[in-house]
Amino acid sequence: MTDTTNSASSSIDVYGADWCGDCKRAKAALTRLGAAYTWHNIETEDGAADRAVEISGQKHIPVVLYGDGAFQVEPSATDIEQKLKELGVID
Prior knowledge:
By secondary structure, the protein is of the alpha+beta class. The protein has a single domain, classed as 3-Layer(aba) Sandwich (Glutaredoxin).
């Protein structure tokens, strides 16, 4: 899915792998909540794995990076929903 938002504060990047269950759940939560995001597959996109580690300081996925500079590692759907509300992306 491509990020179609114009506001930097509402941009979302998700770093993960297609085989990762937590990544699938994070993407499903974002989709269900109506949040646009950019998917970065750490196995096929040059530099994506390094960027995920650079953001989080660890090798766990998914890494969800928000436009305000905050990030979450292996977030639950509830964590994602709370952050989207904080950013004003959803009510």
